[in-house]
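Reopening this ticket.

The earlier resolution said the output was attached, but the attachment link was broken on my side. Pasting everything inline this time so it's all in one place.
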Amino acid sequence: MPEYHVSDEKLRILGAIPTQTLIDALWVKNWPMSMIEGALPLQSGQKLAGRAVTLRFVPHRPDLAADKPKGDQSAEYVAFELCGPKEVLVIDAMGWQYSSIGGDIKFYRLFQRQVGGLVTDGAVRDTNSLKEYGFPVYSAAATAKQGPAEFWPWEVNEAIQCGGVLVRPGDAIIGDDDGVVVIAAAMVDEVIRIAHEREEVEEVIKAQLQVEKCSPGKYYPFNDTTWELFKQKTGKDRYQ
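Inline output:
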């Protein structure tokens, strides 16, 4: 399979598109509507756009300790060093909503590296400190619990699940107040094209609803009447 790189410019474009519109664009192409379930913004007004660096947690078991790399070679610290302003660390916490993937001390390094963000289907600790660090955080919950008693970081930059969604290293990770959407790197150009097209059509619909004061069902979801209106207002034919 060919490798795709999501450029900084494409991240900028994606970051300006609402996550709902990105979901709609994926749906048009018959791709899964890849919103990470349970990944909620730590603060309102957050915006997230970056390339995925992935980290997978596994359940704790005493004999795992002998095989787990120690100190700065532990998987989470290896992952941290792969992150920068255009990278988002996406952590598969197996959906263990109240198990901590880390907090103040660990994530200070992410602050130092000025990362693009942190996303997990698990929980984070020390949320006051994380808010002060300033990078966007999306998690299933906040918790006071420690993580190592329940699970440990294990594998870096492999395909993972997070919130029921497949995430591969380098995928585009886009977040706003409504949640986090994963866009396969290979799909970025198509998603941008379709999203912009849908925004144009929806603006026409909304303006017409203000005039007619009719049911949205006349034009939405898109139908033949929608496309007739769109051509009348813009002179453009329906999008493929």
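Reporter confirms the inline version is readable. The two ends are 26 Å apart (CA to CA). The chain is about 30% helix and 20% strand.
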